[in-house]
Amino acid sequence: MWTVPNILTMIRILMIPVFVILFYVPADHWDFVSGKLSFHWIDFTAALIYGISCLTDLADGYIARKYNLCSKFGAFLDPVADKLTVTTALVLIVERFCNSDILHGYTWIITIPAITIIGREIAITALREWMAEIGKRTEVAVSWIGKWKTTFQMVAIAGLIWDVCWDGIPVMIYVMIFMLYVAVVLTFWSMFRYFAAASRYFSIK
After folding, report:
1. Which CATH number fits the domain that encloses residue 50?
2. Helix 108-133, helix 72-98: angle, nearest 10
3. How far apart are CA 36 and CA 184, in angstroms?
4. pTM, whole model, 2 decimals?
């Protein structure tokens, strides 16, 4: 059960509370200012932890496939770790921007994509579980669209956590919000493809 991929997945789960603690550490005394560039070291560390967590997700899947270390426990644990990590990060980001003036009160700009992504994760998880019960799980395997969605999502979340400013302007925030919306478009696209692939089995009793 405790293969290298499963250990990496468990490490990813254990990194969640570390990331949350770092997120709530007051950043006022951890400023970095160099010319026009500024950010908080504590935010950078939190973003780094999140990024490492994402990399372990790639690593455990690669190792499991390459060395034939796939297991039922790993198949259960890996998506749980993914959903916990992404959901936690999105909830924290929504809280940050609800208490910030960066979006000038338009917090729905972050809240709506967060709800969309979390809702999609719940829906696809339920779909895959149901497809597994009828022996058709491979019909809703991860597609290239889903992989691109995950990539844009990971980069956007890490950037929103880091919160870099250039000459007092949160340029990274605006760029990462754009990337988050690209992830939302890919979210809808991939979800439609998954449900379209599974639709022919919906009549099964």
Report:
1. 1.20.120.1760
2. 160
3. 31
4. 0.88
